[in-house]
Amino acid sequence: MGPSNKASVIIVTYNHGKYIRECLKSVLKNNPLEVIVVDNGSTDETIKIIEEEFPQVKLIKNPKNLGYGGGNNLGVKHARGKYVVILNPDTRVEDNWLDELLKPLEKEEKLVTTPKVLLYDGSKINAAGLIVHFTGLSFVRGLNKEKDSFNNPEFVSGFAGECFAVRKDDYLKVGGFDENLFVYNEDGELSWRFQSMGYRIMYVPTSIVYHDYELKVPPWKIYHLEKARYVILMRYLDWKYYILLFPSLLMAEILTWGYSVLQGIEGIKFKFKAILDSVKMNVTKIETNRKELLRRVDYLIPEDQLTYTILDKAIKKVANLIFRINYKVVTR
Q: I want to staple 127 with a disulfide (CB 3.0 to 4.6 A). Which of 10, 86, 116, 160 is the partner?
C-alpha cells in the first residue's frame, strides 16, 4: 500500500460546479485518507453536487470568500493527514497521481513536491513547477511544451498552486499561504518562503494532473500579481540587495510597466494600486541567508510567455542578458 492513506487532499472552490464532479471522482480513486472541500461562498450548484453525490467528502462552507490562500489554510487546519495536498477544483487527476506525488516525501525531509500538470485535454503541458525569478516575478514552467517533455524528476525553484504536497507539520511551520494575497502569485510567495527556510521543491513527472488553464493577464490580474511581487521583494530582500540587484529590479519594472501600459488606463491604474497597497502593508522580513536564497531561485524568464511581437521578444532577450550578468555577479 502506498502513502496515499496518510494524505488529506484540500480543494478550495468558488462556483466550480462545472468541474467539481470530475475532480472529486478522480481524486477519490486515489484513496486518500480524506478529501476536504473548502467552499468560499459558491452561488452555483457546487455545494449541492458535493452534498448529494459525495457524502464522504468533508465540506467546509465559508459565509464569505477567504481567497485561495485563506481557504487552503483553513482546510489544512482541519486536516488529519500526515501529508496535505493542495489541489485546484478545475482539475482531474490520474489514478496513481497521489502515491507518486507522496513517495519522495516518504524518503526525504524538508521537501515539497509538485506534479506534471497538463492542459485539461492532455494536449500540452500546463506546468512543470514554477519559475520563481529573483526579481519577484513568477512564470509557469514548461507552459505549452509537448506533453512528453519534462519527464525527469528534478528540483525546481517553485511549485504551481494548481497542486503541491507537503507534510502538514511543515506547512504549518512555514505559516501557509499569506492571506493578504487574495489570489495569484501566492504560490510564488510561498515557494520563496519554503526555499528561505531550507526546503527543496521537487518536480515529480510521474504524478499527473489535468487543469483547465489559459494564460491571460487582464488588468485586474496585474494588481494581484504585482502586489505579491512587491511583498516578495520586501519580505525576502533587504536594502543591500535592492542596491546590488538594481539593474534587474529596474528591468522588471520596465517589463511590468510596459505590459500595464499596453492594457490601457485600467492596466496603469491597477499597477499603481499594487504599488500603493503593498507599501501600506506591514510586511515582516524573513531572516535568512539571502545570497543562498537567491542561488535557489531562477535568473532567466521565459521569452515566449505573453510575447506577441518581435519587439516583445527582443526586449525579453535584453532583459535576460541583464538578469544573467547581474545575478552571476551578486551570487558568485
A: 160
